[in-house]
Amino acid sequence: MAHTSKDIYSEEDTKVKFIDPKLKESDWTEDLITREYYFTDGRKLVGNKRGERLFADYLLKYRNKTLAIIEAKKYGEGATKGLQQVIKYGEKLKLKVVFSTDGKGFYQYDLLEGKGEHIQRFPSPEELYRKYVKREDTVTEQLLSQPFQFTSGKKPRYYQEIAVNEALDAVSKGNKRVLLTLATGTGKTYIALQIVHKLFETKWNIDSADRRPKILFLADRNILADQAINEFNFYEKDLIKVTGEEVRRRNGKVPTNANIFFAIYQAIAENPEFEGYYKAYPKNFFDLVIIDECHRGSANETGSWRDILDYFDTAVHLGLTATPKRKDNVDTYRYFGKPVYEYSLKDGINDGFLTPYKVKRIRTNIDEYIYTSDDTVVSGEIEEKKVYELKDFNRTVVIPKREELIAKAILDNINEMDKTIVFCQDQDHASLIRDSINVFKKVRDPHYCVRVTSDEGEDGKKLLEAFRDNEKDIPVILTTSQMLTTGVDARNVRNIVILRNINYVVEFKQIVGRGTRVFEGKDFFTILDFMGATNHFYDEEWDGLPDEELEIDENKNVTKKDRDKKQEEEIIEPVYNLDEFGLLEDGNRREKAVVELSDGRKLAIIDIETRYIDEDGKPLSAKEFIEKLIGCIPIMFKSEKQLRELWSKPETREDVLKMLQDKGFDMEQLDFLRGLFNASDCDIFDVLAYISFNKGMLKRKERTDHVRGDKKFFEIYENIKARDFLMFILDRYEKDGIEELKRDRLGELVKMDKLKTTKEAGKAFGNMDKLIQAYYDLQENLYKG
């Protein structure tokens, strides 16, 4: 039989013999080519495993700018066989051009034009580079071609590289306001560092003078500013933090002898005691102002940072935020315009750069309360006949016994030493929960559970630093109110507990972000929701509003005078109401009613519903979970017979489990699925076969009893020790399931059995090959139709 060229050349042969020479013909030298460029880590799965990593066969880079990727197939399979995949990857990498080839034919696709063509040769590096940067764009070329700063040992991830380049491209084209939107935990400060590095090395500034730029990095909390300073330690000699203490040390003079200035706006803004340190600088002193967490007020005309931005209006304003456009942060987007780049929470989780999560929605039998005469009002005033709902607890009414029930439920639903943040209604509530947890905790250390709020001052900061230190076990649980909603980098947080009424998607997303950072051995984190806050996952705004729903202010150079005039003409609605924060009209805090329940009132947790998050970031109910799995299975298996054959062998069974993992269904979720069908004593195979092919389910004991009764199977093995060992394997499988049937489990099973050593086991079966074959035959018998 004649062999085709497809049979002769493997994909690797095709690369070496046909694609590499073609690249060389177009002046692509080895230093410009990266082979097998992996650009994602693969979604995190249970058991310290990962889903599929995405990679390009070739990455083409020139002048430190990623230009294109190439998808390669075996010789003769067709030049466009890999086209759809390379287009998908190219869009993810924000490329303009991609290539698909089988070594015989070469196909170029323009992602901007949406058109492709067969080509005889690859474009040269210079030709391809000019599709991105025109010769007249000298500033753009200088900024983009400047190498990244690798001194820290970290190389930028693909989305970080895109974010840096898109921001610099906007700056080089004269944009005065630039916005980057990236999910919490994706490294916004690192991105800012790389932007600053490139601006420094090219001596970019607003005057086009021969000097390095002056840069102001604004944050709204000291911990965020300090984290940023740590990230910028490469430029330690060029940076300074502007504080009241620093100004006093300089006899009332603001520091000017640096290039990078860090400040929290409270330290430099106006207040009743002084005019504001920022006004001590000339208006054109800074070339760039970076606003961290810019959604927190900088863009609103009455916002806390707006006066500072208006004063330094000649500088470029670069906003960093983790929150896509929402109705409650639209001012940010009106000010900055559309983000030059967005990287979502969903993207980060699916790429494996953020940790996925699951939800436990926990309900009590006192999620509503109506006062009765049997209860005692300890303080404050209670409204009779009023139905107090979840949003009222610890805002207008406090029931200590309910909080004790919740504290116990928290401890019952977390591992004892798993780092946990509890978000409470206010500082008093944080104290109550801390004290309640300390009643029920089993760990003796007095700092096992601590409150970290603004009232703690320096002591609170030290406790927070200890919590963030991954080398320290204590403290384990932090109770807080609003202090930790943004920016605190604690990578090993395993649980987020929500005890606070959360009205805004922005705030909810920030709180979820406290758990998303990746840490070794952390497969997922859990959101324990006592308030129904996770309903925000189903909000139409969860992934941002369509652009057409909100008007973006494209006039980026409107003056403060124009804005003030416009403000006089419009009625500006407040974005919150006083009642949400337990405040009276005069701004004073309402006294809460504290109620002691009667002794006859029994409190209990009545429901804990676990929901798993799909690749779109939405929690799935049990019904949705099953429906999604059912939708995946027909694609994976043609028939029940094929599923049975794959499941009967250790290696192919692992392949099936890997396919399921890549679809988002790991072992924990498959075990959860068995529970839904009351099939915890069944094999996962039976559940899969039942769902997809309506086959009856057998319990593992029924399967093992069937094999034990197969005399012909056991008669093959004359040595009684061999038969006993196979019976031992059946016992282990019946008790613990398919984990006992893995190929690499055989050696451990031998040690656990009477045989003790592989040498003895080999003797019992005749030799090692026969032992291995018996292990496989036993499994085939287990899954006979």
Features:
785 residues, alpha/beta, tt1808, chain A, Rossmann fold, eight-stranded mixed β-sheet, 26 strands, 36% helix
Walk me through the structure.
Strands 20-21-19-22-23-16-25-26 form an eight-stranded mixed sheet. A seven-stranded parallel sheet has the order 11-12-10-13-14-9-15, sandwiched between helices. Helices cover 36% and strands 16% of the residues. Helix 5 runs antiparallel to helix 6 (158-172). It has five domains: 5-129, tt1808, chain A; 138-343, P-loop containing nucleotide triphosphate hydrolases (Rossmann fold, 3-Layer(aba) Sandwich), CATH 3.40.50.300; 355-620, P-loop containing nucleotide triphosphate hydrolases (Rossmann fold), CATH 3.40.50.300; 621-698, no CATH class; 702-782. Residues 298-302 and 545-587 have low confidence and may be disordered. It is an alpha/beta fold and 785 residues long. The chain contains 29 helices and 26 strands. It is flat and about 95 Å long.
Strand-residue proportion: 15-25%
Q: Tell me the Rg in angstroms.
A: 31 Å
Mean pLDDT: 84
The named CATH superfamily of the largest domain: P-loop containing nucleotide triphosphate hydrolases
CATH class group of the largest domain? Alpha Beta
Count of all domains? 5
